[in-house]
Amino acid sequence: MAPKFDVYAHVTDTIIAEIEAGTPPWRKPWTGSASGVALPTRHNGDEYRGINVLMLWVMAAKHGYVSSRWMTYKQAQELGGQVRKGETSSTVVKYGTFTRENELGIEEELPYARAYRVFNADQIEGLPEDYYIRPEAPRDLGTAEDPELEAFFSRTGAEILTSDDPRAYYSPAKDHIHMPPIATFHDAAGYYGTLAHEVIHNAEVRIMPRRSS
């Protein structure tokens, strides 16, 4: 028999994994986004609250979803849409209470958490156009380079590429780091802190083969 799905463990593990992976999507220190940055909303426009906001931001950032709208498979069908074949759902949690009589015969309210599955509008074909919400455009904030830090990162030997693509990442396959323009960051500390994190990933990949030899 398959193990019971633990809602609390799933939420905790997802958030911890994003924090350990680097800058989580709700703390992104630059402007512009490859995914939706508005508060996640249900099919009817109601905003998600609490932990579901973080959970859906994580999934949007991870998969590059643009729209802020999320819905169940059935809700998509009711709107005339169809989830594309092969798309994977994301987990959200509904919190509530239920009444139960305890051993003393006294009714008490107990909390519960129930998981259910939703899809982003970008995973669905045939929805009304206003469900496909566009991402935030990068903004030039005038943040300038620090010559000493530029020289330091140059000495690491890492290949650092910059483009208007609003994502910061290290590509193991191509062995390069991609950074958005420093001018789109709120401050230089955010830029170099993000770059340092990606340089560490680069260094880990370079060191690992030596450890295995």
Summarize this structure briefly.
With 213 residues, the protein is of the alpha+beta class. It is built from five helices and eight strands, in the order ααβαββββαβββα.
List keywords for this structure.
213 residues, 2 domains, three-stranded antiparallel sheet, three-stranded mixed sheet, globular
The tally of helices reads 5
**Largest β-sheet summary:** 3 strands, antiparallel
Task: Please give the oligomerization state of what you see.
Answer: single chain
Radius of gyration: 21 Å
What sort of overall outline do the alpha carbons produce when their principal axes are compared?
globular
**Coarse structural class:** alpha+beta
- Mean residue pLDDT: 81
Fraction in beta strands: 15-25%
- Contiguous uncertain segments of 5+ residues: none
Order of neighbouring strands in the sheet with most strands: 1-4-3
Domain Polyvalent protein metallopeptidase: 148-204
Enzyme class: transferase
Protein name: DNA primase TraC
Pfam families: ArdcN, MPTase-PolyVal
Question: How does the SSE layout of this entry go?
Answer:
Blueprint: H1 7-21, H2 51-63, E1 70-71, H3 73-78, E2 82-83, E3 90-101, E4 107-120, E5 124-125, H4 147-155, E6 160-162, E7 169-171, E8 176-179, H5 188-212
Parallel strand pairs: 6-8
Antiparallel strand pairs: 1-4, 2-5, 3-4, 7-8
Helix pairs in contact: 1-2
How would you describe this protein?
- This protein is an alpha+beta fold and 213 residues long.
- The protein folds into 2 domains: 1-136, no CATH class; 138-213, no CATH class.
- The chain has 5 helices and 8 strands.
- A 3-stranded antiparallel β-sheet has the order 1-4-3. A 3-stranded mixed β-sheet has the order 6-8-7, covered by helices on one side. A two-stranded antiparallel sheet has the order 2-5.
- Helix 1 packs across helix 2.
- The longest helix has 25 residues, at 188-212.
- It starts with 6 loop residues before the first helix and ends with a helix.
